[in-house]
Amino acid sequence: MFCNSFELILSVATVQGKLKTFISGLIKCNEASKQIPGEMGKVALARAALFDVSFLMLSFIVQSYGSEVVLAENGDSFFEKWVRECLVEKHKSKSPAVMVKLCDQNKVDELIVSLNSPEGLKGSSLKWHEICANIPGLLYQVLMAWENETLSTPEIKKFLDSLKSRFCCFSVCATSWLCAYMQVVRQDELLKPMNMVQQFLTAVSADELMQQENFKERLGLTVQIVRKMQQTSNVCRGRVQTSNHAAISELSLANPLETVRGVWRRVGRVGCRSIDAGTGDLLHLADVWL
Asked: Keyword set for this entry (predicted)?
């Protein structure tokens, strides 16, 4: 519902010639709502929600209208810098290696420590925009640890769930780097990053939905953005796959019952499931019980 309303607002702003003004206001809102150290209570929660939702709205606009609409000639806001350096776009390649090099290794290390702690990112001293900027370095290290079997599949799932439960924009930042990475790696190296992206599309618990204001609406917009990034990545590699027919992530296989429920939820949404996709689901599930 929120996504439909937002698209309507964008359409009206475009028709009235006020899209640029609307975007400028969103960028100012995102910049003004960056984290203030020591701020607590409802004010801090409201600021966090504003930062998150303005980031998501701007990302959605870039995907719909192109980055040229958002980027000012000498714009130096955090979001504009992130778009230039990190946002994967159709027909505009971004180097995943360059994204990683732009990260601050000390902050990446702090992110890893925070995500491994019981408090998660709540106990981190890093500001929200600093986390967004350093997620490529974090994801690279996590993916390499999974490839080298230093981290197990359940550990990866827990790690990603901890990342996405704090802010929806973290899922967008992570997916952007993963999609850029998938555009340059070999075919046999795609499965794990694809599964990591799929994990950002899995449902969150009811408790997490209740903890943050308007989190359900933000999550709906996040899912749309992530799916568009998937499509962009698939088109760039010359093999279009719709999210409805995507293979089940091995990250979800630690909980087979939830996997089955997820399949039925997808069937309910689209009204059918292709034979190939259904066969793949059964084969993945068979690996769990056989």
From this structure: Activator, Nucleus, Receptor, Transcription, Transcription regulation
Residue 272 belongs to some domain of the structure: no
Domain annotation covers residue 16: yes
- More confident: 23 or 117: 23
- Expressed as residue numbers, the domain containing 31 is 1-236
246-275, pLDDT tens digit by residue?
444 555 545 556 666 666 766 665 555 555
Instruction: Give the pLDDT confidence score for residue 239 in this predicted structure.
Output: 45
CB 178 within 8 A of CB 197: yes
Q: How many CB atoms lie within 10 A of CB 202?
A: 17
pLDDT band at 232 (very low <50, low <70, confident <90, very high): confident
Nearest to 37 by CA among 118, 126, 155, 162: 126
In a domain, 25, yes or no: yes
Please indicate, yes or no, if residue 228 is contained in any of the structural domains.
yes
Domain count, the chain: 1
HSE value, Cβ hemisphere, 13 Å, CA-based, for 261 = 7
SS3 per residue for the chain: CHHHHHHHHHHHHHHCCCHHHHHHHHHHHHHHCCCCCCCCHHHHHHHHHHHHHHHHHHHHHHHHHCHHHHCCCCCCCHHHHHHHHHCCECCECCCHHHHHHCCCHHHHHHHHHHHHCCCHHHHCCCCHHHHHHHHHHHHHHHHHHHHCCCCCHHHHHHHHHHHHCCCHHHHHHHHHHHHHHHCCCCHHHCHHHHHHHHHCCCCCCHHHHHHCCCHHHHHHHHHHHHHHHHHHHHHHCCCCCCHHHCCCCHHHHHCHHHHHHHHHHHHHHHCCCCHHHHHHHHHHHHHHHC
Instruction: List the one residue out of 172, 168, 198, 174 whose CA is nearest residue 266.
Output: 198
